[in-house]
What does this fold into?
Amino acid sequence: MTAIADPRSPRVTVRRKGPNLEKWGWIYMRVSGVLLVVLIFGHLFVNLMVGEGIHGIDFAFVAGKYATPFWQWWDVLMLWLALIHGANGMRTIVNDYVTHDRTRRVLVWALWLAAAFLIVLGTLVVFTFDPCLGFDASTASDTMISICS
It folds into this structure.
């Protein structure tokens, strides 16, 4: 008597030679998750608790933060880790629930392309941010005048 496999039983796949990408993806999710908790809570603490709190967040606050390489790299690291973490999680969901091989491959490629595009775009925004573009000293705050003068 032969048994029929459960509908949601995993596909039998042949182990390929080379690095085990699933294992490294699993490790990345754990490590990036811990780092993201530290980065996000540090970001929230500085933005919401230090200084004037939420009332102090305006264009000048962001310009002041992005004037220092430390905060640029903090936010870029948070961006990179979060986007890769999210794309890897979505890849896992697609692999679990999409049964057609070609559809799964297209969706996974689309996920990684979207993540790469957002990483490039976000990195460009952080490192090329110019608060003095279109600066008008007559309407600017004291912080903006000190940054742009």
In short: Residues 69-97 form the longest helix (29 residues). DSSP finds five helices and no strands in the chain.
